[in-house]
Task: inverse folding
């Protein structure tokens, strides 16, 4: 919900990632019974192997 956290940056604009001009297009969906078991959800922008970065969800 916080601004500035993105999971994808276009490769067409060379400075998109460094300028943090991205989109939130990667999601992790959970079923209703699991919703209350979510401990944390993070976007891992330090992963630079792709124009997308991992989305992590920790479920107890």
Result:
């Amino acid at each position: 919900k916080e601004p500035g956290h993105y999971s994808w940056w276009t490769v067409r604009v060379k400075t998109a990632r460094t300028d943090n001009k991205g989109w939130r297009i990667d999601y992790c969906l959970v079923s209703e019974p699991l919703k209350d078991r979510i401990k944390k959800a993070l976007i891992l922008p330090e992963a630079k192997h792709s124009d997308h970065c991992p989305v992590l969800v920790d479920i107890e």
Summary: The two ends are 21 Å apart (CA to CA). The mean pLDDT is 92. The chain is about 5% helix and 20% strand.
